[in-house]
Amino acid sequence: MKAKPFLLSSLALSLALATGSASAGENADTVYVNGQVYTVNTDQAWAEAFAVKDGKFVKLGSSKEIMAFKDADSKVVDLKGQFVMPGFIDAHTHPVRVKMVENVFFNNSTANLEHKTPEEFGKLLQDYAKGRGADKEWIFGKAFSWSYFHNTGVTMDRHYLDKYIPDRPVAIEDEGGHVVVVNTKALELAGITKDTIAAEGGKILLDKNGEPNGHLVAGPAIQQVLKYHPAHRMEDVTEAAVESMKEINAFGITSVKVMEGDREQMQAYHDLDKAGKLTMDVNMHPYINEFYFGKSILPALKEKHKYETERFRVDGVKTFIDSSPFGRAAALHKPYAGSDDYGKLYTPYERFKDEMIKFNGMGLAVTTHTVGDRGMSLVLKAMEESAKVNGIEKVRELRNHIAHCFMVEDQDFARAKNVNATMEFSPGFWTPMPVYEVLAQDMPNGMEDIKNFFPIKKAIAEGNNYVAASDWSQSPLDPLQHIETLTTRRMPGASESEKSMNPDAVIPLENAIRAYTLNAAVSLRLEDKVGSLEQGKKANFQIMSNNLFEVPLNQVHAQYPTKVYYEGKLIAKNDRKPVEAS
Fold first, then answer.
1. How far is it, in rounded angstroms, from Cα 565 to Cα 542?
2. What is the largest CA-CA distance in the chain?
3. What is the mean pLDDT of the chain?
4. Are 476 and 485 in contact (CB under 8 A)?
């Protein structure tokens, strides 16, 4: 589907500029004419012009229609055929954590985990401890790759970390974020010994002598150590909120669902909005217990009204039902290959169900990290139980959120639709096929399971509210990368000759864009305000380098917003050479 713009000639534009204005009270602050405007509104998918007043859309239509909203004080912007679309909405992101890792904690993620020897990685840790981390009680951060130590004769464990930093507690995440390795000092500070029992849902691994080797697997075990980490400084949190917002806006994103949070983050977003500096809508779903540091969110939730503003809202919580497909930590209906292991739950079902009922009863949505098909089924079962207690209409209105949806049984799409759950898919988790080919050795049905990961096409067919999201920093922030991969099931930029993760599961570009705009707005319960270009909604829009419908699908990722607007105000500009449409 391509835009069919009705571009004004210079003479026609001059005549339009001379026309009369709309009725009193309707004159616009700015009118934009002569564009290719994709609205994502099915009632009016395309327009060539629009009028903005007081940060909202007054009208969309032809340039002649829109020029009627001009008066002597209105600004006129000639789009000259440029492609305009709604601001993106990222329904799963961790912005403050990203910038805390980049600017405060130890950080090996900016190098994209390029290969290092054990000695090179150890030197990075030492340099941080002597430099940016010199005044820190703990050395904490991310990330290392297990590949650094493969076939090297060196083991990544507490003894390895002791060699480089013996005098302070050290805790470093692996590349997946669900394993943390700590040194001896950290274990001692937390009182972890060979006799310590791991918190339910986690593992404390032992060496051949039966002593803790420093490997903490999954949040409950990680929290047993990191709960002793000092509190974050308010000034660091605020700076991280500001810096991440700038990066988010530059990618054309004007609304987010933040899947983390604590009292300090609530305060930071509150203060930014009150100071007139918040340039995106923020819905926060903090962890019930912070994933790494274990702090309970309940005390802050009870006072969330103190922090909420016009643009910032705490309307849910984040939890886990299972963990990761790697390490057999996803909960499956069938056992892993060659075993009777169905995968361990991160949260026992009875406790999870009680939390769902409790928080829904408080008027809060529950977002659940879900990977395995059994995990998915249990999440839906808990939502159904919540509906019995809290009422089906209340549960539907809350739009409980299922994050990732790696594996979904066919019958569970209808169950998700019945409780009006948001089904979030993660196109940024596409990785080179060899990684999945290794994982396939563990899966009950081998590569057949892998190719059916992230079944967004089925969700569309079944009428579910489907969204796509980044889970930044677990995958890149750029929505255009993810929109492309949803339409190709390949890595960004890959040619049609390259291997695809199931070409039968690709979706049309219109649906991929909707997953990052209007559907995401529905998941945030903001569809009456954002997500499409419509009269009365916020004027959140972006002008693109090229019309996304006119470039090859494998070049969608190479496009970018040249200008980004939030509530009618320019908030970001990008100046780089566009990839030409062909």
1. 6
2. 87
3. 92
4. no
Interatomic CA distance for residues 125 and 164, integer angstroms: 7
How far, CA to CA in Å, does 394 sit from each of 17, 361, 437? 50, 9, 42
| pLDDT beyond 70 at 577 | no
Helix axes 373-390, 349-361, angle to 10 degrees: 40
**C-alpha distances out from residue 390 to 217, 321, 387, 401, 577, Å:** 34, 21, 5, 17, 53
Structural tokens at position 173:
């995440």
Least confident of 49-63, 215-229, 542-556: 215-229
pLDDT at residue 19, as a whole number: 46
Do 545 and 556 touch, CB atoms closer than 8 A? no
- Would the pLDDT of 24 be above 60? no
- Compute the residue count for the chain: 582
Q: Is 38 exposed, middle or buried (0-12, 13-18, 19+ CB in 10 A)?
A: buried
- How many degrees, rounded to 5, is the angle at CA 247 between CA 53 and CA 557? 95
pLDDT tens track for 446-505: 999 999 999 999 999 999 999 999 999 888 999 999 999 999 999 999 999 998 888 999
Q: Which residues contact 568 (CB under 8 A, 6 or more apart)?
A: 29, 30, 52, 53, 54, 55, 56, 539
What is the pTM assigned to this prediction? Answer: 0.88
User: Residue 6 pLDDT more than 50?
Assistant: no
pLDDT exceeds 80 at position 432: no
**% of the chain residues with pLDDT over 70:** 93
Question: Which long-range contacts link 15-24 to residues 24+ away (Cβ below 8 Å)?
Answer: 16/63, 16/64, 16/67, 17/67, 17/70, 17/76, 19/64, 19/67, 19/68, 19/70, 20/68, 21/68, 21/69, 21/70, 21/71, 21/74, 22/59, 22/68, 22/69
Please name the helix (run of DSSP H) or strand (run of DSSP E) that holds residue 61, with its range, or none. strand 56-61
Q: Residue 38's beta-bridge partner residues?
A: 46
Tell the residue number behind the tokens 């009204």, with chain if given: 305
- Alpha carbon distance 174, 114 (integer Å): 13
Which residue, 265, 315, 211, is CA-closest to 523? 315
Closest to 97 (Cα-Cα) out of 222, 276, 236 = 236
Instruction: Identify the burial level of 350 via C-beta atoms within 10 angstroms of its C-beta, where 0-12 means exposed, 13-18 middle and 19 or more buried.
Output: exposed
Amino acid occupying residue 551: V
561 pairs with which residues across the strands? Answer: 544
